[in-house]
Amino acid sequence: MAAGELEAVFTDILERAKALDPANARQWFDKLTVRHLRGGSLEVGCPDDATYQFLRDNCRGSFTRAAQQITGHLVAVDFKVGADERRVRRSTGPEAELKLHPDYTFENFVVGPSNRLAQASCIAVSQSPGNTYNPLFLYGNSGLGKTHLLHAVCYEAKQRLDGAFIQFSGCEDFVNRFIRGIQEGKLAGFQSQFRKVDMLVIDDVQFLREREQSQEEFFHTFNALYNNGKQIILSADSPPGQIPSLEERLISRFNWGLVARIDPPSYETRIAIVQKKADLRGLAISDEIAEYVARKVHANIRELEGALTAIYAVAMTTGRQITLELAQRALEGQIESAVRHINITDIIEVVTKHFDVRLADLQSKKRSQSITEPRQICMYLARNLTKHSLEEIGGHLGGRDHTTVMHACNKIGQAKSSDPKMHALLAELTKQVTQTP
Ligand code: ADP
Ligand code: MG
Q1: Structural domain of 34
Q2: Domain match, 77 and 131 both
Q3: Segment 101-110, tens digit of pLDDT
Q4: What is the pTM of this model?
């Protein structure tokens, strides 16, 4: 495959993967590179470890399906960061444990009155670990950004303190590893992993409740780190004193540094968060829509994201501009069933009717403009509105091969961006196709 063609196929695969799994679609997919696509194997290059982990953990399935649909072949997908050697070497060091979500950075965190103290203290700690607030304890209800902030601190501290050993764990993970350490007689290994770090970040420490032995272990870990001036950051769903059956000596230690509460975001902050999350997905939404979503969802930011995902899914599958009405219908779950079953014959029917041509002409070898254009539009719409592969689309339109279909899609895609008339025509045809009962 020529380089340009490879790029084009890869772009299509990315678009398809986004449509197949809107919840994990991200704007930064643009930064991925295709290393090769041959012999049933697609290798995708990632800019850094965080994006690599995100893709490996969340996107392998959608990328595989997308690659298979677009190429019409069985494809195995692999993700790689930088040079291969680096990946191998790193995965053997302790840092391999540090799994950070690429979305959870300070840059992507919207600050408002509800979370300002928590965010500011996290920034302070990330800039000078062990020297400002130690421990730093964040608390608040579920879905208000605690985990996001903890990732952001780790990410920032990792950039600043090159080579520092940062341990980030969910509390359950801490407890489970501790128990496994005891069972397997490898407690020393467990202890050195937690007591020798430069920064220890434990999420959801409320899981320590009623775990006496783990609390004891945690107490010693805490002391070892604290006495060596190492930074400790904790989060929980309530303040230290209100975590049920937490030992008094832990409560008092958790209160030694700074305890910062996160409240539910105000309406204005929610609007800003919706806009931020939409940007991350490369989704353009008007203020009106952001306001609508922010009004509709208020308790929990995770739900705001779910709402955006629903809107994104509808926009992707219908190829439509996101209007307020579409957003409303998406959130009310009305559109989904209508868009699922578009097939290529619906498209051909709408296009032949619009251009007043016959299917036989589209399938023929005729190359006059009056036939070529509707044929290419059919291909373009089939590509964007159905899950057919290039081969299958070519098959429906007179047995044309996948490069012809791809060429058609590119050509119409370009015309769509440069010619407002084409843009309007495609929107109209799409509307007709998606509204076909
Ligand atoms: P918690 O750990 O408190 O339950 P999370 O950190 O998992 O909550 O946050 C849930 C979702 O909400 C995440 O996707 C996170 O990025 C998002 N989120 C929460 N607060 C903010 C914020 N202020 N700005 C942007 N995103 C936020
Ligand atoms: Mg959390």
Answers
A1: 3-92
A2: no
A3: 999 999 999 9
A4: 0.71
